[in-house]
Amino acid sequence: MDIKKTYQRFRQWQHTPHDNEFTSHDTQHCNNCGHDFVGNYCPYCSQKSGLGPITWRSVGMSVAEVWGMHNRSLLYSLMQLFLRPGYFISDYITGKRQVSFPPVKMLAIIAVIGVIVDFMTGAIHGMVQLSHGERMGYINTVFDWLNVHFNGAFPPPSDYLDDVFKWLNTHPDVLSLVLLSFLIVPVYFIFRFAPRNTRHTLPQGFFIQVFSSAVFMILNMIYDITSLGWLVFILGAVLVFVTYKQLFGYGVWGTLWRVLTAFVCGYTMLSVVLNFNYSIHLLREHNNDLAGQYFMNVPIALLILVIILTISYFISKPRSHQSKPAR
Q: Is 36 within a domain?
């Protein structure tokens, strides 16, 4: 087997996986409206060519449609999200709707499957462990480091926040949705002038994160089944990088610093929510002085966020070259 040719065919499939040519140039007869036509679909009533009397195959396809195993199947869409994630998302947000299973429906189905996997595997500990010696303990170390070094923009440990983290910890899918939703605005500004999908919109950014959420939910299920935290972490990091590189067309370093910056901004937005929420909790506890101190972290974090996004925006903005006057 020629590895180089195989890889080249794979790269070609990543760019152009869909063959939209006619399966037959023979005249077809539509059993629905009675017209004759050439192509895959009847131009008069839109029924697919080749459909005839009901068979056992028809029964199987009807059952499969419930779980998205038909045209634009769920499994095929998920395969593309792992093998050509950025190109696949780019196809969808630029108008090629037929290439994908409906993304919001995809996310809902995967969420249901994720709940089933949680019950079957007894995965009640979640992705982030708050006590040492348990699974994924190295992620807890990261959170401890952030709490120490970014205490000005992140509330310090407390019983109340510990309860918040424990709830998110036992609901990893919700945690993934929350964190990825905070990326919509940063990605909008940081990748605003990308070589590919230039000036993408916030609605497009919403669907980018919907597809990403579906991938992370599957990674959560892989972790629940295998308990291989390091493998899931590496897969997630690689998929995030590959997705944004394919989606926006920057080089390796251009993609890397923008992705890291987007996640820093997402973390900062999360810190705003946590500070604000913690301040309200302190007010309810009649601890007004301490509540005021933590509430002041909100505008500080927002200012940091604005500065980061502004710098990233102007770094990415193309420079206008003024033409020299003709002599």
A: no
Which comes out higher in pLDDT, residue 257 or 157?
Answer: 257
State the SS3 of the chain.
CCHHHHHHHHHHHHHCCCCCCCCCCCEEECCCCCCEEECCECCCCCCECCCCCCCHHHHHHHHHHHCCCCCCCHHHHHHHHHHCHHHHHHHHHCCCHHHCCCHHHHHHHHHHHHHHHHHHHCCCCCCCCCCCCCCCHHHHHHHHHHHHHCCCCCCCCCHHHHHHHHHHHCCHHHHHHHHHHCCHHHHHHHCCCCCCCCCCCHHHHHHHHHHHHHHHHHHHHHHHHHCCHHHHHHHHHHHHHHHHHHHHCCCHHHHHHHHHHHHHHHHHHHHHHHHHHHHHHHHHCCCHHHHHHHHCHHHHHHHHHHHHHHHHHHHHCCCCCCCCCCC
pLDDT digits (tens, 9 = 90+) for 264-298: 998 888 888 878 877 887 788 788 887 788 788 88
The span from the CA of 213 to the CA of 238, in Å, is 15
Specify if 23 maps to a domain: no
Residue 100 lies in a domain: yes
Q: Which domain holds residue 120?
A: 73-316
Whether 111 is covered by a domain: the verdict is yes
Number of structural domains the chain divides into: 1
Place of tokens 């056992």: 56
